[in-house]
Amino acid sequence: QVRLQESGPGLVKPSQTLSLSCTVSGGSIRTALHYWNWIRQPPGKGLEWIGFIDYTGTTVYSPYFENRTSISRDTSGNQFSLQLRGVTPEDTAVYYCNGGNDMDFWGRGTLVTVSS
Length: 116
Prior knowledge:
Blueprint: E1 3-7, E2 11-12, E3 18-25, E4 35-41, E5 48-54, E6 59-61, E7 69-74, E8 79-84, E9 93-100, E10 105-106, E11 110-114
Parallel strand pairs: 2-11
Antiparallel strand pairs: 1-3, 3-8, 4-5, 4-9, 5-6, 7-8, 9-10, 9-11
């Protein structure tokens, strides 16, 4: 069974960079036709898709986040990561990693608060 686990700081100061990692177990991030997403949910709002890195290492981002987001991967560690630059309090959210052939697998989510 594929499992995903987010990790990273729970508190980030405004204007800094939010950095999260997702460790995948029970499967490889290089599995063909698998896509590895970052998704967030701000308090009281719906889910927001940030972007993905696919099994070849190709990245695609939501236009809303594209100019300040990077998603990368570490194939030896079977991890993928998110960097969101220039955060503001509006970036406070539960951040989820997700993946699979059809967004099958979800991490439990991690709350990141942006505050000074």
